[in-house]
Design a protein that fits this description.
The chain is an alpha+beta fold. It has helices at 13-26, 57-68, 164-171; strands at 5-9, 36-43, 46-51, 77-83, 97-101, 111-116, 121-125, 130-132, 153-156. It starts with a strand and ends with a helix.
Length: 174
């Protein structure tokens, strides 16, 4: 398993797949066409999404945020695991494993919170700012053996880059 994964807890896989599809359409010009999103069911209402390609920290943060608020009116528990390499992070943070998430108490909607492998916490603002903060979260990378899980459902970016149906469904929200 690579370190570019997302855990999402939802009782509706179709909503997760639709959110991924919409997100791909929104960011199609910033994604490699061959990027795949492998969706594994890890428990009854829990899924692991493994990205086949590394995307930059900004896109990954947008992905975590989009999945968290994909139902528009319901917060969904999402945790994204990756490596910090954005130049906005302190040099001491770059290259470290991080978790990106949004707490249920969030009222800003355009930030993600970050906890490093050494449990330093930051607020990652979509306006470009990264600031130290305190939040009650401990970094813990999931130990899941993908070989023990059922075959994943696979979404490939090229399948949705020119998808008129997704374009139409997004116009309802924007």
């Amino acid at each position: 398993m690579n370190n570019h994964i997302v855990l999402i807890y939802s009782n509706d896989l179709s909503v997760i797949k639709e959110a991924i599809r919409e997100w791909i359409y929104l960011y199609k010009n910033k994604l490699e066409p061959s990027t795949t999103f492998n969706i594994y069911q890890i428990e009854e209402h829990g899924y692991l999404i493994e990205l086949s390609k590394i995307i930059n920290n900004d896109l990954f943060a947008f992905f975590v945020n989009y999945l968290t608020y994909s139902k528009k009116d319901v917060w969904v528990h999402v945790e994204g695991f990756t490596t910090a390499y954005n130049t906005g992070f302190d040099k001491s943070v770059r290259g470290k494993n991080i978790i990106m998430f949004i707490p249920e108490t969030d009222d800003e909607y355009d930030v993600v919170y970050v906890v490093t492998e050494d449990n330093k916490s930051y607020k990652y603002d979509f306006g470009g700012g990264i600031s130290k903060t305190t939040i009650d979260k401990v970094y813990s990378f999931p130990h899941i053996n993908l070989k023990e899980l059922k075959e994943p459902e696979i979404i490939v970016t090229t399948d949705f880059m020119n998808d008129k149906e997704t374009e139409f469904s997004l116009t309802k929200w924007f």
